[in-house]
Amino acid sequence: MLPRSNSPPSGADPPHHSLPGKLTPSLNLHLHLPLCHRVLLVAAVLSVQLLLLLLFSDRSISTTRLHPSTNAGDHRNSRNTTCDLGTIYVYDLPPEFNSDLIAGCHHLNPWTSRCSALSNYGLGPSAADLAGIVPGPLLPSWFNTDQFSSEILFHRRLLSHPCRSPDPSTASALFIPFYAGLAVGQHLWSPNATSGDRDRLCAALLRWISSQPSFLRSNGSDHFIVLGRITWDFRRSKNEDWGGSFIYMPAMSNVTRLLIERNPWDELDVGIPYPTGFHPRSATDLRSWQKFVLSRRRRTTFGFAGAARVGMKNDFRGLLLRECAAAGGSACKAVDCSHGRCANRSAEAVSLFLESKFCLQPRGDSFTRRSMFDCMIAGAIPVVFWKRSAYLQYELYLPPGEEEWSVFIDRKEVRSGAVSVRDVLESIGEEKVSRMREKVVELIPRIVYGQDRLDEGVMDAVDVAVDGVLRRFRERRERTDMGIGGVR
After folding, report:
1. What angle, rounded to 10 degrees, do the helices at 150-159 and 461-481 form?
2. What's the pTM value of the predicted model, to 2 decimals?
3. pLDDT tens digits along 344-367
4. Are 473 and 222 in contact (CB under 8 A)?
5. d(CA 3, CA 206)
């Protein structure tokens, strides 16, 4: 069973405020200056004290959490082109921790090979089945991308990052390119796999990294890693439980983790978007796609791509599918994703989202779903039933003011029959729907993974994450330099 939640950590101690030492004029100046000059000097000294007090007080209450930009002119939307946020060192790990896992792709799943899904540096095979659905000139930007490929996508991009440093002793952030999701995932469904199997490669990686002087220098507090699965796959508390225990291993206690689903109560977990099938080659591709999805005539009020959980008591997905069927084809359409039909994107699902105004996003096997990002990429407005599915997950990417780009409907009210999804959505005026769609489309650059770093200074999901990590580490260093505590 997947864990449903984790208890929030106990409250952190309040920060200790470090105030500047008291400044006093020299005795000689006091004895030789005229009275009026002495008064002015004392006033100036007091002003300096007040200024320093305000400066230190303001910094002492800052946090190290990552926050999204809500303004196009905000500094968080400006790419770190001059490396003023710092530099990144990428560890050259022994191949058993990354490239060997890719080479053994036939053995990563007990039922089928994953070689095609992980090909093309994690992008997967080209999405030829989308011909006629997406504009022809943009078809080379579409792939059948595996939802668990973020480790590979990040690794490739960071190897060519303009702020990559060859020297770990001077780098501001150190990246560990371990494919933990593949290492653990290959044993999640193997009938004979043990907890030791799921932990073996993770423990070996930590033994290796813990022997590096650059890691020992900070105990990992300036290190980050991408974990290509949800956080719960790495949080096994007991041997008989689900997943691996990588996150709970002592050497991971200070390392920042980028995940497609985070634990909302763990400050070191940072949510990143699920990889979708759209990987633009350039800023021009992005603008063309945004224009295309904004201009679509959407004839269906809401759509749902998913499958009922047969045998599950009070299955909410099944309830939504029944409501969709009752609403009829003009109001709602559904794509049945049972038996893996929607795995790694399907032409049916893309077509559904392109013609729908809204897309229903109940929780998946965990609280989050890749489908929410597929939906937003297509310019449809997500309808969320669990706040942990979006609002508590992707703070760096999805701005506050959720009502501007999504609709929240309490699942309990839907279950009880107090509200109808159709009635709620049809009550939203066309003008507001248009504004919400524009906001969703505005967010697309931040939630896609470009094939390479995009031109014209456009920031994609990798840029947003890396800049966020660098800002977090810089703020932590500043707080440490002033003697003010911070997150681990």
Report:
1. 70
2. 0.82
3. 567 999 999 999 999 999 998 899
4. yes
5. 24
